[in-house]
Amino acid sequence: MKVNFSLSLEEKLQILSDAAKYDVACTSSGSDRRGKKGSLGNSCAAGICHSFAADGRCISLLKVLLSNECVYDCKYCLNRRSNDKVRTTFTPEELCSITMEFYKRNYIEGLFLSSGVIKNPTHTMELIYQTLYLLRTKYHFRGYIHAKAVPGASPEIIEQTGYLADRMSINMELPTEKSLHTLAPGKTQQSIEKPMAQIQGKIIDYRLSLGKTASMERFGQNQYLSSTIFTDTASTLSGASSLALEKTAFTPRIQNSRSLSVPIDKQKKRPFVPAGQSTQMIIGATAENDYELLQVTQQMYQKFDLKRVFFSAYIPLNEDSALPSLDTAPPLLREHRLYQADWLLRYYGFHAEDLLSPARPNFNILLDPKCDWALRHLEIFPVEVSHASYGDLLKVPGIGNKSAWRIVQARRQGTLDFSALKKMGVVLKRAQYFITCQGKMLYRTPIEEDFITRQLTGTDKKTAWEAEHPQTYEQLSLFDHHFLEVPPTVEDSCKTFWGQL
Asked: Cβ of 368: how many Cβ atoms within 10 Å?
């Protein structure tokens, strides 16, 4: 590795912000924290965008690596040890200075901080901790911070960092132990899951101290969302195993570390990772099918109570016999379908075994997963919206959580027709084949899989082609200007706000 010690701050920023673009985190912050006199910034649960979306929403996080040096040689990674690249590292003070200057200029609302592994995992995690500690104490920054936890780092330094970050994440990278052994020989599933379990245990302890459960945080008071893939982690994890995580005070092994350690009495008053933890999987680099990926996703939600599992379509960057060829197109549409299926798992009461099976392990890429499921279960359709249960309404393509709730409320006051359903947000383009109002369908339609498939795929072919053939794979840059030429459709705008499927 060629480590360059003479780069300017701007040159470092260009290198390390570009190197961070393959780490996915397109989510809202999930953390509320009001402004405070004498401090700078705040955090709003829905106020931070992590990606540059097609509808024009702006990335407002400084998404950057602490360093692109790395001791690992993962075959899929651009920053792997064997690649001949210029390497550089921010000092904690440099990164704090950039974050504050960008915030004051209204460029960003928060920080997304990841890193290659410098020397060893614990040393890297100590540098991340020092950066966050300076931001929270010296610079009094109260904005959103998403920090990566490094597998293999000391549990004590991971715990200390959790009291300073809003969200922490540990990348699974690949879905199976076999895939990790093939493409990332320096990593193991056990080393990745161990800090996940530690963070989960501390989150549970903090949640229980507030008298909350996982279901209360996830669904609030919505009485209709009782059947999901999630179990109440607080009830399944025994108090002994939760308290078994080490809670001793820890002073990081860094220069002037005594002045940076968090006093225990103050530490206990702080929330621990209030926005929860997440993870990321690369798809397309190995041969797992959609069914295997969904099963792993479901297990991760149930096992570690994650807020999100992110999918990252593999972009060929390195030439290797174990990887797809460099001319392989990134599976962007497959990534999109997996995100839609993930939404069904978390909010629609579906399980991985409902959506796919060993006999049919992949989604029809031209259909969204709910349509794909509905076409394989036509025996339960059409659904009569006038008396169907909330759970049955959620299974109808084109009806989401919001519109299903509105239907349940509206039909108590009177009869419903298709024009009323459209006003409630039902996407009739898909729903019309699966519902009746007062015993009648919108149009005379045969309930046949081949016919409905032709109708739905004919409508969606243009959208599918555009998703598979983007003009660019660039993320929003701090140094370039990007302009949208095509405004979003009304339907896409509705999906953005309500997450309708």
From this structure: 22
Six-digit token string for 2: 């060629």
DSSP sequence for 90-147: --HHHHHHHHHHHHHTTS-SEEEEE----SSHHHHHHHHHHHHHHHHHTS-B-SEEEE
Q: How far apart are CA 113 and CA 468, in angstroms?
A: 29
User: What are the extents of the domains in the chain?
Assistant: 2-320+329-346, 364-470
- Measured in residues, the chain has a length of 501
H and E: helices and strands count for the chain: 20, 10
Distance from C-alpha of 328 to C-alpha of 276, rounded to nearest angstrom: 35
Under 8 Å CB-to-CB from 205, ≥6 apart: which residues?
A: 242, 243, 272
Q: Is the pLDDT of residue 455 over 70?
A: yes
CA distance 425 to 428: 9
The better pLDDT of the pair 163, 227 is held by: 163
What's the pTM? 0.81
Helices (H), 221-304: 233-236, 239-243, 264-267, 290-304
For residues 281 and 173, the answer to whether their CB atoms sit within 8 Å is: yes
| H or E stretch at 308 | strand 308-313
Predicted local distance difference test score (pLDDT) of residue 256: 46
Contact 40, 63 (CB under 8 A): no
Fold of the CATH domain 2-320+329-346: TIM Barrel (3.20.20)
Assign 240 a pLDDT band (cuts: 50, 70, 90): very low
